[in-house]
Amino acid sequence: MLGKKLVTAQKRGETRALCLGLAMVACSMMMYFFIGITIVPSYTKSVWTTETVCKLLKATIKDRDHCSLSEDPEDEDVFHYPCLEVWVNVTASGQEVLLYSTEDTLERNPKCFYVPGNSEKPKEVKTRIETIASNLKRYQTFPCYYDPGGTQTNAILSRLYPLKGLLFAFLWPTLLFTGGCLIIVLVKISQYVSVLSAWQ
User: Fold this and answer.
1) What span, in angstroms and rounded, lies between the C-alpha atoms of 86 and 58?
2) Where is the signal peptide (predicted)?
3) What is the reported pTM?
Protein backbone atom coordinates (compact mmCIF):
# COMPACT_ATOMS: atom_id res chain seq x y z
CA MET A 1 0.00 0.00 0.00
CA LEU A 2 2.80 2.37 0.98
CA GLY A 3 4.66 1.49 -2.20
CA LYS A 4 1.66 2.38 -4.36
CA LYS A 5 1.34 5.77 -2.61
CA LEU A 6 5.02 6.49 -3.19
CA VAL A 7 4.73 5.58 -6.86
CA THR A 8 1.62 7.75 -7.23
CA ALA A 9 3.35 10.69 -5.49
CA GLN A 10 6.40 10.21 -7.68
CA LYS A 11 4.27 10.23 -10.85
CA ARG A 12 2.48 13.40 -9.73
CA GLY A 13 5.79 15.09 -8.99
CA GLU A 14 7.17 14.07 -12.37
CA THR A 15 4.04 15.34 -14.14
CA ARG A 16 4.24 18.70 -12.35
CA ALA A 17 7.96 19.02 -13.08
CA LEU A 18 7.33 18.14 -16.73
CA CYS A 19 4.56 20.75 -16.95
CA LEU A 20 6.88 23.33 -15.36
CA GLY A 21 9.61 22.57 -17.87
CA LEU A 22 7.23 22.79 -20.81
CA ALA A 23 5.79 26.07 -19.47
CA MET A 24 9.30 27.53 -19.15
CA VAL A 25 10.12 26.52 -22.73
CA ALA A 26 6.83 28.00 -23.99
CA CYS A 27 7.45 31.28 -22.12
CA SER A 28 10.98 31.53 -23.50
CA MET A 29 9.64 31.02 -27.04
CA MET A 30 7.13 33.84 -26.55
CA MET A 31 9.91 36.08 -25.24
CA TYR A 32 12.06 35.22 -28.27
CA PHE A 33 9.14 36.08 -30.55
CA PHE A 34 8.52 39.40 -28.77
CA ILE A 35 12.20 40.38 -28.97
CA GLY A 36 12.28 39.28 -32.60
CA ILE A 37 9.43 41.59 -33.65
CA THR A 38 10.38 44.63 -31.53
CA ILE A 39 14.06 44.98 -30.66
CA VAL A 40 15.75 43.07 -33.50
CA PRO A 41 14.15 45.12 -36.35
CA SER A 42 15.09 48.38 -34.60
CA TYR A 43 18.67 47.14 -34.20
CA THR A 44 19.01 45.98 -37.82
CA LYS A 45 17.42 49.14 -39.30
CA SER A 46 19.84 51.45 -37.51
CA VAL A 47 22.56 52.74 -39.86
CA TRP A 48 24.53 54.46 -37.09
CA THR A 49 26.73 51.46 -36.44
CA THR A 50 30.24 52.90 -36.07
CA GLU A 51 31.37 54.53 -32.86
CA THR A 52 33.62 57.56 -33.08
CA VAL A 53 34.34 60.78 -31.20
CA CYS A 54 32.30 63.93 -31.71
CA LYS A 55 33.60 67.40 -30.90
CA LEU A 56 31.01 69.98 -29.95
CA LEU A 57 30.84 73.00 -32.23
CA LYS A 58 27.62 74.64 -31.11
CA ALA A 59 24.72 73.87 -28.76
CA THR A 60 21.93 76.41 -29.05
CA ILE A 61 18.56 76.44 -27.33
CA LYS A 62 16.14 78.14 -29.70
CA ASP A 63 13.51 79.62 -27.39
CA ARG A 64 11.80 81.44 -30.24
CA ASP A 65 11.69 78.37 -32.44
CA HIS A 66 9.66 76.07 -30.21
CA CYS A 67 8.90 72.53 -31.29
CA SER A 68 5.62 70.79 -30.65
CA LEU A 69 4.86 67.19 -29.68
CA SER A 70 1.88 67.29 -32.05
CA GLU A 71 1.87 67.73 -35.81
CA ASP A 72 -1.17 69.97 -35.49
CA PRO A 73 0.06 73.46 -34.44
CA GLU A 74 -3.44 74.45 -33.29
CA ASP A 75 -3.73 71.55 -30.85
CA GLU A 76 -4.08 73.06 -27.36
CA ASP A 77 -3.65 69.79 -25.45
CA VAL A 78 0.07 69.53 -26.17
CA PHE A 79 2.86 71.83 -25.05
CA HIS A 80 5.69 73.35 -27.05
CA TYR A 81 9.22 72.71 -25.88
CA PRO A 82 12.49 74.57 -26.56
CA CYS A 83 14.51 73.13 -29.41
CA LEU A 84 18.11 72.24 -28.60
CA GLU A 85 20.16 72.31 -31.79
CA VAL A 86 23.57 70.63 -31.51
CA TRP A 87 26.29 70.79 -34.18
CA VAL A 88 29.33 68.54 -33.87
CA ASN A 89 32.45 67.64 -35.79
CA VAL A 90 32.65 63.89 -36.44
CA THR A 91 36.29 62.88 -35.96
CA ALA A 92 36.10 59.86 -38.28
CA SER A 93 34.79 61.78 -41.30
CA GLY A 94 35.71 65.37 -40.40
CA GLN A 95 32.19 66.55 -41.25
CA GLU A 96 30.12 69.08 -39.36
CA VAL A 97 26.74 67.48 -38.72
CA LEU A 98 23.69 67.71 -36.49
CA LEU A 99 23.71 65.51 -33.40
CA TYR A 100 20.62 63.70 -32.10
CA SER A 101 20.03 61.86 -28.85
CA THR A 102 18.92 58.56 -30.45
CA GLU A 103 17.57 57.18 -33.74
CA ASP A 104 14.05 57.78 -32.44
CA THR A 105 14.74 61.49 -31.94
CA LEU A 106 15.52 62.00 -35.63
CA GLU A 107 12.27 60.30 -36.64
CA ARG A 108 10.15 62.32 -34.21
CA ASN A 109 11.72 65.72 -34.80
CA PRO A 110 14.70 66.25 -37.16
CA LYS A 111 15.24 69.81 -35.89
CA CYS A 112 16.01 69.07 -32.24
CA PHE A 113 18.59 67.06 -30.32
CA TYR A 114 16.11 65.92 -27.66
CA VAL A 115 12.39 65.15 -27.83
CA PRO A 116 10.56 64.80 -24.49
CA GLY A 117 7.89 62.24 -23.73
CA ASN A 118 4.19 63.07 -23.81
CA SER A 119 3.85 62.73 -20.04
CA GLU A 120 6.66 65.17 -19.14
CA LYS A 121 5.83 68.60 -17.76
CA PRO A 122 6.93 71.75 -19.64
CA LYS A 123 9.03 73.09 -16.73
CA GLU A 124 10.81 69.77 -16.29
CA VAL A 125 11.49 69.58 -20.02
CA LYS A 126 12.98 73.08 -20.08
CA THR A 127 15.23 72.28 -17.11
CA ARG A 128 16.33 68.99 -18.67
CA ILE A 129 17.18 70.62 -22.00
CA GLU A 130 19.22 73.30 -20.24
CA THR A 131 21.06 70.61 -18.26
CA ILE A 132 21.81 68.62 -21.44
CA ALA A 133 23.14 71.73 -23.16
CA SER A 134 25.40 72.63 -20.21
CA ASN A 135 26.75 69.05 -20.00
CA LEU A 136 27.56 69.02 -23.71
CA LYS A 137 29.37 72.35 -23.40
CA ARG A 138 31.26 71.13 -20.35
CA TYR A 139 32.66 67.93 -21.89
CA GLN A 140 33.13 69.23 -25.47
CA THR A 141 34.20 65.80 -26.81
CA PHE A 142 32.23 62.59 -26.29
CA PRO A 143 31.56 59.21 -27.98
CA CYS A 144 28.90 59.17 -30.68
CA TYR A 145 27.72 57.04 -33.59
CA TYR A 146 27.68 57.84 -37.30
CA ASP A 147 26.68 56.15 -40.55
CA PRO A 148 29.83 54.87 -42.33
CA GLY A 149 27.80 54.26 -45.50
CA GLY A 150 26.83 57.91 -45.76
CA THR A 151 23.08 57.26 -45.92
CA GLN A 152 22.52 59.59 -42.97
CA THR A 153 24.60 62.77 -42.80
CA ASN A 154 24.21 63.21 -39.06
CA ALA A 155 25.23 61.54 -35.81
CA ILE A 156 23.54 60.19 -32.69
CA LEU A 157 24.75 60.27 -29.12
CA SER A 158 23.59 56.76 -28.19
CA ARG A 159 21.86 53.85 -29.88
CA LEU A 160 18.46 52.70 -28.63
CA TYR A 161 19.53 49.07 -28.84
CA PRO A 162 23.32 48.56 -28.87
CA LEU A 163 24.81 45.10 -29.36
CA LYS A 164 25.29 44.61 -25.60
CA GLY A 165 21.66 45.54 -24.98
CA LEU A 166 20.50 43.09 -27.65
CA LEU A 167 22.57 40.27 -26.16
CA PHE A 168 21.27 41.12 -22.68
CA ALA A 169 17.69 40.98 -23.99
CA PHE A 170 18.33 37.46 -25.32
CA LEU A 171 20.00 36.35 -22.07
CA TRP A 172 16.82 35.88 -19.99
CA PRO A 173 14.79 33.82 -22.48
CA THR A 174 17.91 31.71 -23.13
CA LEU A 175 18.29 30.98 -19.41
CA LEU A 176 14.56 30.20 -19.18
CA PHE A 177 14.73 27.89 -22.20
CA THR A 178 17.84 26.12 -20.87
CA GLY A 179 16.26 25.66 -17.43
CA GLY A 180 13.05 24.27 -18.94
CA CYS A 181 14.93 21.83 -21.18
CA LEU A 182 17.07 20.73 -18.23
CA ILE A 183 13.97 20.01 -16.12
CA ILE A 184 12.40 17.99 -18.96
CA VAL A 185 15.60 15.98 -19.48
CA LEU A 186 15.93 15.26 -15.74
CA VAL A 187 12.30 14.09 -15.56
CA LYS A 188 12.80 11.80 -18.55
CA ILE A 189 15.98 10.39 -17.01
CA SER A 190 14.13 9.81 -13.72
CA GLN A 191 11.31 8.02 -15.55
CA TYR A 192 13.78 5.87 -17.47
CA VAL A 193 15.64 4.92 -14.28
CA SER A 194 12.32 4.05 -12.56
CA VAL A 195 11.24 1.80 -15.44
CA LEU A 196 14.67 0.17 -15.55
CA SER A 197 14.59 -0.49 -11.80
CA ALA A 198 11.08 -1.95 -11.97
CA TRP A 199 12.07 -4.20 -14.89
CA GLN A 200 15.12 -5.51 -13.01
Assistant:
1) 6
2) none
3) 0.72
